[in-house]
Amino acid sequence: MKTIVLGYPRVGEKRELKKATESYWKNDISEDDLSLIASQLRKKTWRTQQDQGIDLISSNDFSMYDQVLDICITLGCIPERFKNLNGLEQYFAMARGYQANGIDVTAMEMTKWFDTNYHYIVPEFVKNQTFNLNSDKIINEIKEALSLGISSKPVIIGPITFLLLGKEKEEGFNRLELLDEVLPVYQELLLEIDKQGVEYLQIDEPILATDLSFQEQQALKKAYKYFSEIKVDVKYILTNYFDCYGENLELALQLPVQVLHIDVVRCSMQLDDILKTNLIGDKILSLGVVDGRNIWINDFEKSLQLIKKAQAKLGEDQVWLGTSCSLLHVPYNLELEEHNAQLKSEVKQWLAFAKQKLQEIMVLKQLALNEKNDTAMSFFVKNKKANNSRKVSALIHNNVVNRRVDNLKPTDSERVSQFSVRQQLQRKALKLPLFPTTTIGSFPQTKEVRQTRAKFKKGQVSQDEYDAFIQKETEDTIRFQEKIDLDVLVHGEFERNDMVEYFGEQLEGFSFTKFGWVQSYGSRCVKPPIIFGDVSRPKPMTVKWSSYAQSITKKYVKGMLTGPVTILQWSFVRNDQPRSVTCNQIALAIRDEVRDLEDAGVKIIQIDEPALREGLPLRKEDWKAYLDWAINAFKISASVVKDETQIHTHMCYSEFNDIIESIAQMDADVITIETSRSEMELLKAFVDFKYPNEIGPGVYDIHSPRVPSQEEIEYLLDKASSLLPSGNIWVNPDCGLKTRDWPETKTALKNLVQSANRMREKVTNVV
Ligand code: GLN
Ligand code: ZN
Fold it and tell me: Per the structure, how many domains does the chain have?
C-alpha cells in the first residue's frame, strides 16, 4: 500500500515565491535570484513529504505562475504575439501582458480551475496550431529531486484536459482536432521522462469530473491507447478529482493505465461502483481519502471503512492512499498558527493543513495495515475525540440564527417592484448621465496602505492613527475620482485587507489564520477564513467608512459589500451541514448590513458575487439545485431596500454564458462584469438572452499592468453598444484596482472617462 500526494502548495509557507516573483517583476532581483528561491522552496517541499514517509512525491507540481501555463510552454503552445519574447520574460508576458521595449501585447485569458478559487491561464489554439517540445522544466525538476535523493513522481496535465480547457482563437475548427498534433509531443516528453528512470508519472485529467461528449470520450480513449503503445517503462497514474467519474467511469476503468486515482472525499459512492464491476482488473486503485480542498481533520473511522472495503476486494498491494487532489488548495502548516490567539484551540483541534494531512495519510496507512503502534493508536483516539467534540460544541451552534433561517419567506427574496419600475424611479432619483462611469471598488493598495494595516494589527499603530490614515486615503481617492469626473464613486476599500476576510473578521462563526495562504493566481494569494460555526453579525461592518466617504462628496458613493455566495465560496466551509444553510446564514448578515447602509443614506449598494460561477457543480445535472439556493441567498441579501436604492453586483473571471438566466434572476439593477480579456465575447450571451437590467462590461483588464488607450476602450464600448441598448450600459474596469499601482490606474481611468464622454457624443438621442 503506497502513499501518494497529488501535489503540494508552492508559494512558500511565508509566501516567499510571491515576494520573490514580485521583486523580480520590479527588477529588484535577478532571474538567478528568483530561480534560487524557487529551488529552495521545492527542496523544502520535497523534504517535508520525505520526512513524513510519503512514497509518491510530486515533481513539476511547482510553478512560477500556473501549471496550465507551464504545459502550454512545455508543448510549445505559444500564441504568435509572444513570439518576439523568450524565456521567463515570455512566460510572464503570457500571464500578465507586456508593455515595454516597443512591444505591447495583451495577456492570455485567465479563468477558474474547475470549482476552485485557483485561476489558470487559458491555452489559446489556432487552426494550424503546431506543437513542439519546448521546455525541460519537467526533466530539470526530476533531476533536481534526484540530486536530493528523491525519486519523484512527475505530474503533468493530460492532453484531453489541456485541449478542453483551452479555447479556439479562430473560427472553423474544433480544438480536439489538434489531438493528433499534440500527441507526438507528449510522446517525446514521455520518452524524456522515461530516460530519467522515473517509475510513475501522474497524468491529471480532471476533465473526467465533467460531462464529456461521445467525441471527447473517444479522444480520451485514443490518447491513452497512444500512450500505452509508447515503449517506456514508466507507469501511468491517471487522476481525476473534484467530483465523481460519473458517466465517464466505465471509460476511465478501461483506459490502459496502471493506476487510477479517485477522489473519495467528493465522491465516495464511486468506490462501490468500481468495486462492483471487475473492470479495474489489475490496476492499482489510488484512494484520495484526505481532503485537498478543505482544512478539517480527516474522519479516520469513515476513511478506514472505505480503505478496508477496497483492500478486501483488491488486496493491499492494489490499493494506494493519498490526498483527494493536489494540496495546492490548502495552507501549508497548522504549526505556524501556534501563537495565533484568534484561532481558538477548540477550533484548532478540528483542523489539518497540508503538513498535517501528510501525517494523516501515514497514520491511515498504518491503521489500514493493522500496524497498531502507539503513535497510530493515540492519533486515532485523538481524531475520534476531536470529531465528536465538534458535533456538540457550543462554539458552533446558535439557535437564534437557525430559527431566522428556518423562518425565511419567499417574499424576503423579492424587491418591492419589478426592474422596469425600479429603473424609472432610479433614473429620476439618481440622474446619472448616459454611459455612467464607475469602478469596482478597491483602489491601489500601496505598500504604505498594507504596511500601515500590518502595523495596526501588530499594535504598532493606534486605532486613532490608523483611522486617520484610512480617512486620508479615502479622501484622496474621492478627490481623485471627482477630479477625473467619474460618475459613481467608491470609497476605495483601504480598510480592507481582503474582500472576504474583512467581513469574516466582523462576523460570528468565523476564524482566521495568520499564515493560511492559498494561491489564487500567479503571485496572488488569499487567506480564506474558516467558517466553523453558525454565522451572525453582531454590529454594522461597513457603514462607518461608506458614510464617511458619502459625507465628503456630492457625487454618489457606492456602498460596497461582498455577497453571501462569495463569502461562502472563498472560505473554508463547514462540512457538517449543507453549504446552502451556511449561505443563508451569511445572506441574513449581509441583508442587515444592506439595510443599515440604506438607513445611513447610501443610495447605491454593490454586492459583489465574483465567485457565483465557480460554486457551480462540475456536472450539469447538479447545477439547478445549486443555482436555486445560491441565487436565492443573493436575493435575500439584496431585497431589503426601497425601489429607488440601486443594487449593483459584480462578477469576474469566469464564463458566464451558460448561467446567464440565473444571473438575470438575481435581479440586480446593474451588473459589472469581466469581459475585456475576451473582447466582449461574453456580451453575446447577454444579447441572445436579452438581459433586461443594466450592465457594465469591463473595459479595462485590471489583472495586467497594461494601460488601455482611449481608442481601445472606445472600441470595446462601440462593440457593447452595438449589442445592448445604450441606456443600459455602464463604463467600468473589469474588477477592483487593488493590485494596480497609482500611475497606471490614473491614466487608465482618465482614458476610461474620456471614452465614455466620446460615447455620449456619439449616442445623444437615446433614452
Ligand atoms: N469590490 C471588490 C474590489 O474592488 C471586488 C473584487 C472582486 O471582484 N474580486 O476589490
Ligand atoms: Zn472582480
Answer: 2
